[in-house]
Every structure is written in structure tokens, then in C-alpha cells.
Design goal:
The protein is built from 9 helices and no strands. The chain is mainly alpha-helical and 278 residues long. The radius of gyration is 39 Å and the shape is rod-shaped.
Length: 278
């Protein structure tokens, strides 16, 4: 009886070359990831705008550090405009132009308060001078907060403190003078003289503190940390187009810098992307 071998089969080994081909295809697929962000050239005009915006932001930051918020606002506004044209605002940091302009306005208001404080102190109205200095101090602090700058309110604080003492001594002097007048009216002149002398002493103290706190006076107490330096940095930056050099200009400069050797000159090529100005 013949044997039925129809259910028998042979297990053939896998072709190693086929597996190698698949593996090779996988590695080939990842060998070249294609162009990257670093391979993409930035348009020279756009790069110039980005550089200009970066420089203007640096100028604004420097003006903030100096306490010149008006200049900082102007520089930052220019930086925002140029960065917007470049389509990249990543280089912009800190307070924006609106916040800086608000800070500059507050600085101006504080200066007006300090000017009024000096006038009131000079007139001997120490209560009003104290109020003026206190308002100036708060407004300066608001300006510093809006700009992200350091505290420039130290002098206004000193003025407010001195005018506070002047006001207190002035009130004490007035009370002593009234008491002296009461004793004199009662015929108690000895007691009247005592209070009159005390009134004169307190008045002298008041005037002394008033002058220490009088804004703008030569003897006024000031805080060096409150000084604000005027900065004029925006004119230091050329327009974006002016800051760019063409590739031909760069190559010409390279040629001039090379020694007069034909072999060296041959190494410069006009179609090399590395000659572009970044």
C-alpha cells in the first residue's frame, strides 16, 4: 500500500540575506535625517533686523539699570517694532514699552512732587513738605516696579523722614509758644520765659530738619542709590539695512586681508554658503 506523504512538509531556513536587506533598509532610512534648522540660511535682511532688535533691547536694559525709564521706553519700543518686522520676539526681555512709558510718567510726577516739597520746606510748611515727599516716595517705587528697575526712592524717603521730624518739632514749638504767651498773660513771666526758650529751641530743630529734607537744598540729605543717569543710547544703533554687509563685500574684505599669493586667493569661492554674513 503506497504511503501518503501529502501531510509532510519541509521547514526551510530563512534567507539571511533577506533579513540583512531589511536591516540595511532601516539603517539607510535613518542615515540621512534631511535638512535641519541649522542648515536653513537666514535672510540677511531678517538677520539684520534681529541683530538690531537685540542691540536695542540691550540698550533698553542698560537704561533701566541706570534708572532712565524714558530712554528705556523709547529703546524698547524700537526693539519691538524691529523684532516684529523680523518675526521673532524671543530676544525681547523684561518690561515692555507700555510699562516703561508708565514708569517714565511716574518718574516725572514724582519729580514734580519733590519740587513742591522743596518749595514747601523752604517756606517752613513742614507738614505739606512731609506729604509731598511721601507721595514722591510712593510714586518712585511704583515707577521702579513697573520698569523692573532697582529702588530709587531712597532720597524721597530721607526727605519724608526729615520733614516729619521738622513737622513734629514745629508743632512742639508752636505749643510751647502758646504756653509761654499764657504764662505771660497771667503775669507769670518767669514760667513764660522758660516756655519761650523751649519754643525757640524746638523751632531751631524744626528748621534744621526742614533744611535736611528740603529737596534741592545744598545741605539736604540724599541717597546715592536714588540717582538717575540720563542715557541716550538709541542713536548708537544704525538702521538694520546699514548694519548688513553683502557677501561680495565680505569676500572683498577677505581678499584684502589675504597675502598676495595666488594659491591663497584660489581658496576663496563665491558660491560657498559660509561666506554669508550672519
Amino acid at each position: 500500500m503506497p504511503v501518503d506523504n501529502s501531510n509532510e512538509y519541509t521547514l526551510e531556513s530563512a534567507d539571511p540575506s533577506a533579513t540583512d536587506s531589511v536591516v540595511d533598509d532601516v539603517y539607510d532610512a535613518t542615515a540621512d535625517p534631511g535638512p535641519t534648522a541649522t542648515d536653513t540660511a537666514v535672510d540677511p535682511a531678517t538677520q539684520g533686523e534681529m541683530d538690531s532688535a537685540t542691540n536695542l533691547q540691550a540698550a533698553a536694559t542698560d537704561a533701566i539699570n541706570q534708572g532712565d525709564y524714558a530712554t528705556a521706553a523709547d529703546d524698547r519700543a524700537q526693539a519691538e517694532t524691529v523684532a516684529g518686522q523680523a518675526g521673532d520676539t524671543d530676544m525681547l526681555t523684561g518690561a515692555d514699552s507700555l510699562a516703561l512709558q508708565s514708569a517714565a510718567d511716574e518718574q516725572q510726577t514724582a519729580q514734580q512732587d519733590e519740587t513742591q516739597e522743596g518749595q514747601d520746606a523752604a517756606a517752613g510748611n513742614y507738614a505739606a513738605a512731609q506729604n509731598d515727599a511721601t507721595q514722591a516716595q510712593g510714586t518712585i517705587q511704583d515707577a521702579d516696579d513697573n520698569a523692573g528697575g532697582t529702588d530709587h526712592s531712597g532720597t524721597a524717603y530721607d526727605e519724608a523722614q526729615n520733614e516729619s521730624w521738622a513737622n513734629w518739632d514745629q508743632q512742639t514749638a508752636d505749643q510751647n509758644a502758646q504756653t509761654a504767651a499764657s504764662y505771660d498773660a497771667a503775669g507769670m513771666t518767669d514760667d513764660g520765659d522758660i516756655y519761650a526758650a523751649a519754643a525757640d529751641n524746638e523751632q531751631a530743630n524744626a528748621d534744621n530738619y526742614g533744611e535736611l529734607g528740603q529737596d534741592g537744598d545744598a545741605l539736604a540729605q540724599t541717597d546715592p542709590s536714588s540717582e538717575v543717569a540720563a542715557v541716550n543710547s538709541d542713536e548708537a544703533f544704525a538702521a538694520p539695512d546699514d548694519s548688513l554687509a553683502t557677501s561680495e563685500d565680505a569676500l572683498a574684505a577677505t581678499d584684502d586681508a589675504l597675502p598676495l599669493d595666488d594659491s591663497a586667493a584660489d581658496t576663496v569661492t563665491t558660491d560657498d554658503d559660509s561666506s554669508a554674513i550672519s
